[in-house]
Automatic annotation (TrEMBL), chain A:
Organism lineage: Eukaryota, Metazoa, Chordata, Craniata, Vertebrata
Protein's cellular compartments: Membrane
Family under the similarity heading: Belongs to the PRPH2/ROM1 family.
Entry-linked Pfam families: Tetraspanin
Gene Ontology terms: cellular component: plasma membrane
Gene: RDS2
TM annotation in the entry: 20-39, 59-77, 98-123
Region (Disordered), start-end ranges: 334-368
Protein's recorded name: Photoreceptor outer segment membrane glycoprotein 2
UniProtKB/TrEMBL annotation, chain B:
GO cellular component annotations of the record: plasma membrane
Primary location recorded for the protein, binned into one broad class: membrane
Keyword flag Cell wall biogenesis/degradation: no
PANTHER family attached to this UniProt entry: PERIPHERIN-2 (PTHR19282:SF440), TETRASPANIN (PTHR19282)
Transmembrane segments: 59-79, 100-122
Biological classification of the source: Eukaryota, Metazoa, Chordata, Craniata, Vertebrata
Taxonomic source organism: Merluccius polli
Highest taxon, organism lineage: Eukaryota
Official protein name in the record: Peripherin-2
Assigned keywords, A-Z: Membrane, Transmembrane, Transmembrane helix
Family designation: Belongs to the PRPH2/ROM1 family.
Gene: PRPH2_1
Topology term for the membrane: Multi-pass membrane protein
Length: 368, 342
């Protein structure tokens, strides 16, 4: 009982082969697009490497790149096969390769699906990486004289300007770290000394933020220092003031940005997966119908194509048996310590039928 | 006095027609590119239109767009004409159209060259427009509550951050303008009253700049206020400090940006102009050499082709005469009517 049996006339077979040839080339294009998307994601993540802590986020773009390249190769081969399938003489060349090709492509589509799902699943890792990375970056904001960290200030400033965000979760994060370097603090001033003494670690903490937190849409000139002090500035209420600084945290801003990219990429990969699957089904139909034509002998006759020869359950069982027996081909029976020289009587009834045991020797009696 | 007479044997004519067909398709693509470049330039100019006082500079992208579209049509027809040129039965139907076609084509090609010249020559115009536009922008920076000006602050802030510049000529322009609105000044404080009394117009002037002038590449947190006062900040010397705020003026930054863009586009359009001129010249040579064949039994003889039958001046008069006659004809007709009624 075949799965999804379809009858194919010669012209229908030829048309199927031609359509599949074109579709395979479109799939090659899809493979290139997947490769491009993987590359784009890798570049985007690398651009902000300074703001991400060491987390394994590169496996998603790497997988997309690999899948894209393999898809190109597989579909290129598929295109060539389908091109040759129009002519049943040329089909014989590919006959032996076709079934393994279909099986390989079937498993490959699983990896495409895995790539799509990973895109959606990467968000958690990315959030961890960003939280830690941004905390570190803000801590080293003032270290513009330390080699390896001297551009962190510029990176954080440009990030806050471009993504219109401030701090890690919000602007208050800047109140808990020292972002003004000691080089620019006048240690002889009383105010500075007081601030340094006011906390355990001796850090110069202010209720102020860097200039990059300033909101360009604010109607008044930016208030960067003494943000929580309503009396320090005329006509200013810190509780209700929302336009002065960027309210969004940079972690949320970056996460939203990357989530958008990954959702679009994930959607594209899902569509590519569906397309690959449909092309694969077409190739399977073509293979089975051509094989049936060869079995029938007449290349112009009508033949049947199917997805699976028997039902799902039977095919699964037979495949499992094949896999089980694959492992056994070199194994000998392990009874009696596995010594092949000992005769182990087979259990009755014997499986080989050599005829009944008591046949009188007719020819010998006649001759003698 | 014929201009550029050349002999054309049959094989050369055929090769000319084939080469011309290819060239005309290239020139069509070039025309489309010219149109695209004009659109890009116009979009870029409109993005910062608020920093400019007038839109005279828009003549350059407008001309490019018109020329691009015209060149698409001209080169399409050039391709069709040269396809028909070698066929004696189809060529005569183009006969009447060729003279006005060449007139129009030469006009638009000249316009292309004019656009290139304009893109280099309008630098002064652009600079003057930016000077006035930026001056107004800085003056109205504080007027975020005045309708029509409420987005000036936003525009100037974005401009200074995107182009990494400060002020009109340089950052000192901010010292001469009151850029903090009176709504946010505490008039009961002595400092504010002193500053307002210190100048004739009663403006609150200070030696400070908005936050958008701050340079993110500076190693120290941005110093915006009391810029000229060395003692107000620890370890600070305003004469030698270069990294704190942007030292470049926005006018210079914008002029450099737009001139760079227009120079690149101008160079491209110049090459398209040369391509277009060669297409027209080849088409003219093909036309004149094919016209000599018309009516002859043997179409494969050698003929002569030329660019202009008469000299340059006479040819121009030939084109201009019908236009003048058209204008003068009306005048004469009016005169005759008046004579008739009188």
């Amino acid at each position: 009982m075949a799965v999804l049996r379809v009858k194919f006339t010669k012209s229908k077979r030829d048309k199927l082969a031609q359509v599949l040839w074109i579709l395979n080339w479109v799939s090659v294009l899809t493979g290139i697009i997947l490769f491009g998307l993987g590359l784009f994601l890798k570049v985007e993540i690398n651009k902000r490497w300074e703001l991400m802590a060491e987390r394994d986020v590169h496996y998603v773009p790497n997988m997309l790149i690999a899948v894209g390249l393999v898809a190109c190769a597989i579909n290129f081969l598929g295109g060539k096969i389908c091109y040759d399938c129009v002519d049943s003489a040329k089909f014989l060349r590919w006959k032996l390769i076709l079934l393994p090709y279909i099986v390989c492509t079937f498993f490959f589509t699983f990896s495409v699906l895995a790539g799509a799902l990973l895109c959606y699943g990467m968000r958690g890792e990315l959030e961890d990486a960003l939280t830690l990375g941004l905390t570190q970056a803000m801590r080293f904001y003032k270290d513009t004289d330390t080699p390896g960290r001297c551009f962190l200030k510029r990176t954080v400033d440009l990030l806050q300007i471009e993504f219109q965000c401030c701090g890690n979760a919000g602007y208050r994060d800047w109140f808990y770290i020292q972002w003004v370097s000691n080089r620019y603090l006048d240690m002889s001033q009383k105010e500075v000394v007081d601030r340094l003494r006011s906390n355990v670690e001796g850090k110069y903490l202010v209720d102020g933020v860097p200039f990059s937190c300033c909101n360009t849409y604010s109607p008044r000139p930016c208030i960067q220092d003494q943000i929580t002090n309503a009396t320090a500035h005329y006509n200013y209420e810190p509780q209700t003031e929302e336009l002065n600084l960027w309210m969004k945290g940079c972690r949320r801003a970056l996460l939203d940005y990357y989530t958008n990219i990954m959702q679009s990429i994930g959607l594209t990969v899902l569509i590519a997966w569906l397309f690959e699957l449909s092309v694969l089904m077409g190739v399977r139909y073509l293979q089975t119908s051509l094989e049936n034509v060869l079995k029938q002998g007449d290349p112009d006759s009508e033949s049947e194509g199917w997805l699976l020869e028997n039902s799902f359950a039977e095919t699964a069982r037979s495949n499992l048996n094949i896999i089980k027996n694959l492992g056994k081909c070199n194994q000998i029976d392990t009874a009696d310590n596995g010594d092949p020289n000992i005769d182990v009587p087979s259990p009755a009834p014997s499986t080989a039928h050599y005829g009944p045991d008591n046949v009188p020797p007719k020819e010998a009696a006649k001759e003698s | 006095m014929v201009v550029m007479k050349m002999k054309f044997p049959f094989a050369k004519r055929v090769k000319l027609a084939q080469g011309l067909w290819l060239l005309s398709w290239l020139a069509t693509v070039a025309g489309a590119l010219t149109f695209t470049l004009g659109c890009i330039l116009k979009t870029e100019l409109r993005k910062r239109a608020e920093a400019m006082d007038n839109t005279e500079i828009h003549a350059v992208p407008n001309t490019l767009m018109v020329v691009g579209l015209a060149s698409l049509a001209i080169n399409y027809f050039a391709g069709r004409i040269c396809q028909d040129a070698l066929d004696a039965t189809r060529f005569p139907r183009w006969k009447n159209m060729l003279k006005p076609y060449f007139g129009v084509a030469c006009f638009f090609t000249a316009l292309m060259l004019l656009a290139v010249i304009m893109s280099y020559a309008m630098k002064g115009n652009l600079e003057a427009s930016l000077k006035i536009g930026l001056k107004n922008g800085i003056r109205f920076y504080k007027d975020t509550d005045t309708p029509g000006r409420c987005f000036q602050k936003q525009t100037i802030d974005r401009l200074q951050m995107d182009f990494q510049c400060c002020g009109n000529t340089d950052f000192k322009d901010w010292f001469e303008v009151q850029w903090i609105s009176n709504r946010y000044l505490d008039f009961s404080s002595k400092e504010v009253k002193d500053r307002i009394k210190s100048n004739v117009d009663g403006r609150y002037l200070l030696d400070g700049v908005p936050f958008s002038c701050c340079n993110p590449s500076s190693p120290r947190p941005c110093i915006q206020y009391q810029l000229t006062n060395n003692t107000a900040h620890y370890n600070y010397e305003h004469q030698t400090e270069e990294l704190n705020i942007y030292v470049r003026g926005c006018r210079e930054a914008l002029v450099n940006y737009y001139m760079g863009l227009m120079n690149t586009i101008g160079a491209g359009v110049l090459s398209f102009f040369l391509l277009q001129s060669s297409v027209l010249a080849s088409l003219r040579l093909l036309q004149t050499s094919m016209e000599a064949v018309a009516g002859l039994e043997n179409a494969e003889v050698e003929t002569e082709g030329y660019l202009l039958e008469k000299g340059v001046k006479e040819t121009i008069m030939e084109y201009v005469d019908p236009v003048l006659k058209f204008l003068m004809l009306n005048q004469v007709a009016d005169g005759e009517e008046q004579a008739a009624t009188a």
